[in-house]
Amino acid sequence: MLPLIEWLSQTPLSLAIQTREWVVPTIQSVHIVAIGVVVASVFMIDLRVLGWAGRDQTLVETVDRFGPWLSWALGVLLVTGALMVIGEPARELLSFSFWLKMTLVALGTVIAAAFQIALRRNQQRWEESLIERRATKSLAIVTLLIWAGIIVLGRLIAYDHIWGAWSLAPKA
Amino acid sequence: MGIADLLAALEASSIATTIRESLYLFPFIEAAHVIGLTMVFGTIAIVDLRLLGLASARRPFSRIASDVMRWTWAAFALTALTGLLMFSTNAAVYYHNLFFRAKMAMLACAGINILIFGRTVGRSIQQWDRDVAAPRALLQHGRAARGWRRGRRRP
User: Fold this and answer.
1) How many domains does chain B have?
2) A10 domain-assigned
3) What is the ipTM of this complex?
4) Which of A93, A150, B71, B138 qualifies as a FRET site for B128, CA 20 to 30 Å off?
């Protein structure tokens, strides 16, 4: 990991980000706006699955409304997140919170993509029966918890010492 | 008691001290704050995009508002509470921070915005609930408001 961090931190892009104080806070702000879009989109879809909101619309209509926003915002998160890794490689790549967060991001993204594909393949069955299954409702709650966990871990990158011995950061 | 005493008292409170001395409390309060503010932002965006007629345009506004707004308020309560807790740990520093002040000023603007909406177009929702975009109602209101001001200015 250290050679990668060393190399990344010497790239022109990384140096450009490091030498301008306003860049990282600005990227972080865009990143937080985008996670707001993702969380609200996932939240509305999951509320529909749980039957707590949007019952005047079908599941497909709900996913049509929020799915594209979810995809776009995930793209923005990926780009702004990558820029932050390039700009501050040691802060991110040596953080236990970061790797745990990336694991949850992968999980959350796979679930979102798999759900959308499964829904398109078999719309009628989803509307009529699958949505009523306990497993589907549980998945909705698990998905919400995953995205909440992603936000928490994202913030904990700044406090990686709380992981004690698990933190990869050089001990002071 | 001046503002400086108030800030000092807040910092010296047992709850602020407990948070400052804990390794875990501040990071997790801050994380909860971010969950709250992302929810506030995202849900308000849903309502506002509907008002502008840019998304969910065929759903009645009131339906979306009743689906979404209670979560907005719950999330706002979480954000405000965690924000106050974080503020208390280092009140004087936050109080003098320019960005903190700008943020509070914008929060005040957001509150005024809600008040104006509630007292104006918010009162006639039934008339434009199914319109694709609210601007027509907003425009009508705007004309009415200008008329009202002109009326008031007349001796």
Assistant:
1) 1
2) no
3) 0.92
4) B71
The 10 Å Cβ neighbour count of residue A81 is: 21
Say if CB A86 and CB A114 are below 8 A apart: no
Token representation of residue B95: 């109080």
* Contact by Cβ (8 Å): B12, B89: no
Range of the structural domain that residue B92 is part of: 3-153
Q: Measured between CB atoms, does A50 come within 8 Å of chain B?
A: no
Residues of B whose CB is below 8 A from A162:
23-24, 27
pLDDT tens by residue, chain A, 172 residues: 889 999 999 999 999 999 999 999 999 999 999 999 999 999 999 999 999 998 899 999 999 999 999 999 999 999 999 999 999 999 999 999 999 999 999 999 999 999 999 999 999 999 988 988 999 999 999 999 999 999 999 999 999 989 888 887 765 5
In a domain, A106, yes or no: yes
User: What is the distance in angstroms between the Cα of A62 and the nearest Cα belonging to chain B?
Assistant: 9
Place of tokens 């865009």: A30
Token output for B148 = 């009202």
